[in-house]
Amino acid sequence: MTSAKVHRENVPVTEDEQALLSLLTQDTLERRVLTELAGEYGTSRAAAAHAVLSLGIEVVRGGIQEHLYLAYRDSMTEEDEREQREIARTRRERNSDRWSKE
Fold first, then answer.
1. Among the listed residues 25, 18, 30, 27, the one whose alpha carbon sits nearest the alpha carbon of residue 44
2. Of 3, 9, 30, 45, which has the maximum CB count within 10 A?
3. What is the Cα–Cα distance from 86 to 99, expressed in whole angstroms?
4. Cα 51–Cα 69–Cα 91 angle in degrees, nearest 5
5. Helices (H), the chain
6. Is the overall model pTM greater than 0.85, yes or no?
């Protein structure tokens, strides 16, 4: 776990979720997939549950970033968009000049 201070939560799980947690503690395809997604996480059911929860939290944070980006994009005026294009063009030209000298 990444945090120095651990707070334990009681989380209700369905029978299907319990079965999956059991599979995630054994040498199964489910465990290999979770390890690919979350990295090594230990062999206990609690460690497996934490790995799944961590991935879920990442998905939620990604969704939040997407919503914030879309809100930002929708709030931009035509003038804002022109300024952003000009900044990008200037940056490309500056980088192109620097890279051509290397």
1. 25
2. 30
3. 20
4. 110
5. 15-23, 29-38, 45-75, 78-100
6. no
Question: Is residue 21 within 8 Å of residue 70, measured between CB atoms?
Answer: no
Between helix 15-23 and helix 45-75 the angle, nearest 10°, is 110
Q: Which amino acid is at 64?
A: I
Residue pair 47/41 in contact (Cβ under 8 Å)? The answer is yes
Distance CA 35, CA 26 (A): 12
User: What pLDDT band is residue 15 in, cutting at 50, 70 and 90?
Assistant: very high
DSSP 25: T
Instruction: State the greatest distance between any 2 C-alpha atoms of the chain, in Å, as a whole number.
Output: 64
Q: What residues have CB less than 8 Å from 1, skipping those under 6 apart?
A: 50
pLDDT tens per residue, range 77-101: 999 999 999 999 999 988 887 777 7
The dihedral through the CA atoms of 40, 47, 49, 22 has a sign that is positive
Both tokens assigned to 63:
């969704």
